Amino acid sequence: MVYAIVRAGGRQEKVSVGDLVTLDRVPGGAGSTFELPALLLVDGDKVTSAADELAKVKVTAEIIENLRGPKIVIQKFKNKTGYKKRQGYRSELTKVKVTSIA
């Protein structure tokens, strides 16, 4: 089994070929491809973590769709002062499919 740990949007994701992963928004439209930087590669019993060997590894992903996450409601309230504030936020996300690890 081959899988890689990649850096994606400030987080680390474990991916293998064919996986669907939701990441922070990546520039590009549906159908375009891009590469993710690998931090660790596991190929059966062989584990690669050396930086010079990982520079040769290419993890390619294809953008499936751009979407938005669920709405998060932020509320602030201070007692006895009449202060209350309400704010909403929806994160911009991208669903990608990992096409190859080479």
Describe this structure in words.
With 102 residues, the protein is mostly beta strands. The protein has one domain (2-101). The protein contains one helix and ten strands. The protein has one helix at residues 51-54, and strands spanning 2-8, 11-15, 20-24, 33-36, 38-43, 46-48, 59-68, 72-78, 83-89, 92-101. The strands form three sheets. It has a four-stranded antiparallel β-sheet with strand order 2-1-5-6. Strands 3-10-7-4 form a four-stranded antiparallel β-sheet, with no helix packed on it. The chain has a two-stranded antiparallel sheet with strand order 8-9. The longest helix is centred in the middle third of the chain and has 4 residues, at 51-54. The protein starts with a strand and ends with a strand. The mean pLDDT is 95.
Strands, total number: 10
Spans of at least 5 consecutive residues whose pLDDT stays below 50 are none
Roughly what is the average pLDDT, rounded to an integer?
Answer: 95
Strand order of the largest sheet: 2-1-5-6
Number of alpha- plus pi-helical segments: 1
Give the SSE order as H and E letters. EEEEEEHEEEE
Helix and strand composition category:
mainly beta
What is the overall shape?
A: elongated
- End-to-end span in angstroms? 13 Å
